[in-house]
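Fill in residues.
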C-alpha cells in the first residue's frame, strides 16, 4: 500500500469509528516514537512527524542544559517503514478500542434516571443482560420485579441507576423496581408531564403489585388525574402493560394534608382525618363497611398511602371511634386543653379538673388504659388498626434506592 493509500485508509477508518484523523495520527506517532527509542542507536530526544501523504520521519534533537534545542536532524532508520507498518497496526487497534470504550461511556455517563429499552440476551439466577445496541446493561436480581419472567429476545424498558467506568467499557446497571421507572414511563405517555404542566409529586410502590402516585397540575384548566389516565384509560394502560399488570392508583396531590391523606386511601371513602403531629400520626375514620377496603389486602393500601403522604396512618371505623370517645368521656381527665411549650414545641395536656398535667405519651397511655378497663375498645382481627412508618424522602436526582418518593410542595 502506498503512503497516499495509507492516509486514505486512515481517514476512512476514522470516519467509520466516529473519530478524527488527527486522533489516530497522534496515536500512530506516539507508537512509532516508542518503537524508535527501543533501538540501541536511537537519540535521547526525538519525535515523529507524519505529513499529509503519510510520509514518516524521525527528527532527533540536541537539547542543552537549559532546555533549548541546539540542532535537529533527520534520524529515520533505514528499515523504519516495516517497523512503522507493524507498529501502526498495533497502535491503531489499541487506540480504537480505547476511544470506542470512552465514547460508549460518555454516551451513558450522567444518564442515571433515564429509561432505556433493551433486548434480553440472557438471564439466570443472578442477573439479566440487556442489549442496548453498542453496550450491554446489567439488571441484577435485586432490581427485578418478583414473579416477572424476562424472556430471551423480548424487549424490556428499564431505569438506569448507575453507570460505572471499567477497563472493559461502561457497565450500566438498570432497575425494574425503582420508583423512578414509574415517573419516566408516565413522562413517555403523558405529554403534560414531559412539558412540565403536570407534576408527579410523590410515588409509593410495591413492585409487581401496586403503585400509588400523587399528581398536581400547574394549569387550573388541566385535570392532572385525567391527563395521566388518558382517554378511556389509554395512557395509564400503556404504563400498566409495560409493568406486566401492576396496579396503579392515581390521586390528586393537595397541600391540604387532610384532603391529601383522605385521597391517598382511595378507593376507600374517608369520613374524617385527625392529626397527632407530635407522634406524626394521621388518625383516619372510615365507615364500618369501608374499613377493610381502606386497609387493603395485608395492609397494602394503608401502607402505600402512608409512604405517599409521609404520615403514619392509623385507620379506625366509626364504631371504634364512638366506643373510644365514650370511654374517654367518663375519665376525670377527659376535659381539658393542649398547651404547647413555645421553646421546645412539646405539647402538654392540662385537665380541666385541675389534676396534674400530662405529656402526650402519658395522655395516650391513660387513654388506652381507660379503654381497656371499660372494655369498650378491642384490637382483634375483626377491627384492626394499621400503622405504616413513613419512608425516607427520594430526591429528584433519584440518587437513593428507596422504593417510594415523598411528596414535594
Amino acid at each position: 500500500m502506498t503512503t497516499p493509500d495509507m492516509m486514505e485508509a486512515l481517514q476512512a477508518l476514522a470516519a467509520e469509528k466516529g473519530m478524527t484523523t488527527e486522533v489516530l495520527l497522534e496515536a500512530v506517532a506516539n507508537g512509532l516514537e516508542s518503537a524508535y527509542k527501543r533501538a540501541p542507536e536511537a537519540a535521547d530526544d526525538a519525535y515523529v512527524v507524519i505529513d499529509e501523504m503519510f510520509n514518516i520521519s524521525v527528527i532527533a534533537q540536541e537539547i542543552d542544559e537549559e532546555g533549548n534545542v541546539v540542532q535537529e536532524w533527520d534520524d529515520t532508520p533505514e528499515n523504519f517503514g516495516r517497523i512503522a507498518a507493524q507498529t501502526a497496526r498495533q497502535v491503531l487497534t489499541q487506540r480504537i478500542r480505547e476511544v470506542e470504550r470512552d465514547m460508549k461511556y460518555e454516551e451513558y455517563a450522567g444518564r442515571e434516571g433515564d429509561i432505556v429499552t433493551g433486548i434480553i440476551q440472557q438471564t439466570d439466577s443472578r442477573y439479566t443482560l440487556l442489549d442496548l445496541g453498542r453496550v450491554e446493561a446489567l439488571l441484577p436480581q435485586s432490581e427485578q420485579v418478583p414473579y416477572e419472567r424476562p424472556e430471551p429476545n423480548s424487549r424490556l424498558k428499564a431505569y438506569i441507576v448507575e453507570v460505572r467506568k471499567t477497563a472493559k467499557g461502561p457497565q450500566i446497571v438498570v432497575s425494574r423496581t425503582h420508583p423512578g421507572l414509574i415517573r419516566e414511563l408516565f413522562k413517555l405517555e403523558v405529554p403534560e408531564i414531559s412539558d412540565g404542566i403536570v407534576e408527579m409529586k410523590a410515588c409509593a410502590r410495591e413492585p409487581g403489585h401496586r403503585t400509588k402516585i400523587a399528581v398536581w397540575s400547574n394549569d387550573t384548566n388541566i385535570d392532572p388525574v385525567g391527563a395521566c389516565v388518558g382517554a378511556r384509560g389509554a395512557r395509564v394502560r400503556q404504563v400498566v402493560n409495560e409493568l406486566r399488570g401492576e396496579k396503579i392508583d392515581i390521586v390528586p396531590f393537595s397541600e391540604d394534608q387532610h384532603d391529601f391523606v383522605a385521597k391517598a386511601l382511595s378507593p376507600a371513602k374517608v369520613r374524617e382525618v385527625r392529626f397527632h403531629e407530635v407522634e406524626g400520626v394521621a388518625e383516619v375514620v372510615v365507615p364500618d363497611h369501608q374499613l377493610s377496603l381502606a386497609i387493603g389486602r395485608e395492609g397494602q393500601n394503608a401502607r402505600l398511602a402512608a409512604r405517599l403522604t409521609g404520615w403514619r396512618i392509623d385507620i379506625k371505623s366509626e364504631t371504634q371511634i364512638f366506643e373510644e370517645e365514650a370511654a374517654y368521656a367518663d375519665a376525670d381527665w377527659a376535659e381539658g386543653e393542649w398547651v404547647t411549650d413555645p421553646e421546645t414545641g412539646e405539647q402538654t395536656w392540662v385537665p380541666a379538673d385541675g389534676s396534674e398535667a400530662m405529656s402526650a405519651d402519658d395522655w395516650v397511655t391513660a387513654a388506652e388504659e381507660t379503654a381497656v378497663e371499660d372494655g369498650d375498645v378491642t384490637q382483634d382481627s375483626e377491627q384492626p388498626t394499621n400503622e405504616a412508618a413513613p419512608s425516607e424522602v427520594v430526591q429528584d436526582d433519584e440518587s437513593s434506592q428507596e422504593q417510594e418518593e415523598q411528596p414535594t410542595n
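The CA atoms of residues 215 and 252 lie 5 Å apart.
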